[in-house]
Amino acid sequence: MYLHIGKDILLKKKDILFILNYEKINESKLFQNFLENIDRKNIIDISDNKKKSMIITKENEIIKAYISNISSITLSKRDLKF
Known about the structure:
By secondary structure, the chain is α+β, with helices and mostly antiparallel strands. It has one domain (2-77). Helix content is 23%, strand content 39%. It is built from three helices and six strands; from the N terminus they run βββααβββα. The strands form two sheets. It has a four-stranded mixed β-sheet. It is globular, with a radius of gyration of 12 Å. The two termini are 14 Å apart. The model has no long low-confidence stretch (mean pLDDT 90).
């Protein structure tokens, strides 16, 4: 099963670790430390400067972060069962 997160990007649901509200996490120092430890090439911004959510995945032992313009609530309603 896949989840569409915008811009024709589909992620395997089994690879998704978290779907987070971007505005809330952006305020967190702990999360800023987390982002500093991710290789910059593994942060993919597809939001068109309308950052609403961040999807954290683990794909082949590599942690990636996708920034989307689709809200975390909408993404979670797209048949994700956490």
